[in-house]
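Suppose a classmate hands you a notebook page containing two proteins, each written out with its sequence and a corresponding row of structure tokens. How would you begin to make sense of it? This section walks through that situation. The first entry is reproduced here exactly as it would appear on such a page.
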Amino acid sequence: MVSLGIVGAGQFAGQFATLFKVHPDVDRVVVTDLLRERADELVEREGLDGAVDSFEALLETDVDAVALFTQRWTHGPLVVQALRAGKHVYSAVPMAIAEDEIAAIIDAVRETGLTYMMGETSYYNPATVFARKKADEGAFGRVFYAEGDYVHDMDLGFYAAYQYSGGADWKRTASYPPMHYPTHSIGGVLGAIPGHAVSVSCIGVRDDRGDGVFDREVSQFGNDFSNASALFELDNGGVMRINEMRRVGYPSHIRESRFRYFGTEASFEQLATISLWQDKEDVTDVTADLTTLPSMPLDDPSLAHVAPELREAFVSGHAPVHDVDRLPEVYHGMPSGHEGSHHFLVDDFVRAVVDGTLPPVNAWVAARYTLPGIVAHRSALQGGERLTVPDFGDAPAELPTPATSEPTATMATGSH
């Protein structure tokens, strides 16, 4: 059995906390947050096993693993700190925001033998699952070009999310560079076809709304790009085009990640409400196979703590293309999220910890989903100059057995 500490009691942490809590191989879930009242509220609302005063205090307890749901630019150092403290780590995306942070995570995983998994939803996106199956069958022929778009307008949930997490100073962090959050687009491409990026040229679009978001004078990151488009060369000679868009007239509450794959024998394309499989003779509408249905109404009382703009991402069930039989029975009928991915994310992490296996989006795969975006942003700052994308290689066949150690303190809990 696995005991787990949730780090960060924000809006998405609640659903994941519930999924961890009911998993048959998890026996205890505690939580910590910089705002203790948020941790206590999450414990009460989701029936968790207590709250801990700080991240450092959590690492001193006997929990086996931690799940990070902190601000996106904080993940790298926190992951390394947790691994070095002997904890398995599930991390929300992105993996990190700098190459040296990614290298440090890979070194820590290699040296400790502990499980690291990045919670990339697009790996389990119905379109990615469908395309992965087609690629495995050879139905595409050679995939020579693919596209991944993360089309999430700031007006459709991101303002609310940054205001919730950033407080009065939220505009400083709402300017987060789009290409530093590339995994929802890259993950759907590389999660379906083999290969990794080797070079990139990227163009950034400077924002012109003038509301203080994506303002270089305000931005913590010195960023004024609200949209960015990158063209990647892949190691297999193919091409990957990635769009990260934060000012876009697109219904991201219907579909925030969309994908296209072109092969020598067949292709697959998505729009907001339709998905098509095409070969040299015919077009097949596969929309029904890839459509997830809401598992509860958007006005369900259990969603009262979630901003209305974000609720769509919390209530999806599964698509017919998903292999739901592999999930714990307790998950059947429970809300998932992000087009059915949340159940698979939690189960794959728990299974990796329990079985001592590498999860699908392990540290080496996560690096291939994350680092290309970091380099792409650098290219955009240099006017689109073509830059080399470093690669950390494939995951090893096996990692060393994690060392066991006695906890340095007992679990500190809060009231329910």
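The notebook's second entry, a different protein, reads as follows.
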Amino acid sequence: MSNRTSTPHSIIPPYMLRRIIANGSEPQRNCAQTTLNHVNTLLAHPFAEPMIAPSTQGGEVERTIYDAHNGTALPGVQVRKEGQAATKDVAVNEAYDYLGVTYDFYWQAYKRNSLDNKGLALLGSVHYEKDYQNAFWNGQQMVFGDGDGEIFNRFTIAIDVIGHELTHGVTETEAGLIYFQQSGALNESMSDVFGSMVKQFHLKQTAKQADWIIGEGLLAKGINGIGLRSMSHPGTAYDDPLLGKDPQPASMAGYVQTKDDNGGVHLNSGIPNRAFYLAAIALGGHAWEHAGYIWYDTLCDDTLPQDADFATFANLTVTHAQKRFDAKAAQAVKHAWHQVGVL
């Protein structure tokens, strides 16, 4: 990675936390307010890129998991290093396993050696703060809260959440998409796209077999929802008295103009998310071998500007579909973007 600063990213968008603050019980409101305050602090204080010794060669993941013991000092106490046996702590084991799956996905699918393509060691801290309702990538490592058990389960439970957050490191390295408005929504969408493919890769699913839900299993029992976001049908992931209704638009007709959430980066990401889903279904097979490769090529394209809007990114995906595959693939990708109103 370069020595530039990295914008921290968290999986729970501010608008979900604000709904809990508005509608929850006093303990729920307090938890959500603490989490929201922390998210705002993260965004205001970017971290320097890590200086961590790379692993010796591609294909060899280097993981270390720490326990924050419900505190905020990072990384915490080391509890599991690469090659060590599983512990009795399910969060430690999930973090360890899913960091490994994400590494394997990028290596086996795209011959990418970790997030920076230079063998960056993958670090994770579990049990961050008390009942913390989030997971985040701070530019150096993954950090997982335990949730409160009433709204959110532990944040290590969802492999696509881990794939999502780690992909921010890939995007930072390759494209540096500015975390604001459409380029920020593309940044978020890249994490959903590759996070979903990490899960599909792990489960050996085709595009048609996949659920296309981000954060399945993360919402606690009693919450009316299937996850944080739906890539196939944005705006349908949850509809609950506490969380409200999923506000993501599925096309440019519903594009949200807002100053909140860095210009709606978690909201409007539903539009490119659905475009990817449509392209993946049209191209068939395993998403990471077809549509995913096109998106990966685009993310790694030196001509992709840091402030790219949806249309700029979309046109580049059409170009790369033609380059890597053929005119038929390019047409399928173009049609997907047309269906969501971008092209």
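A careful reader of the second entry would note: DSSP finds ten helices and twelve strands in the chain.
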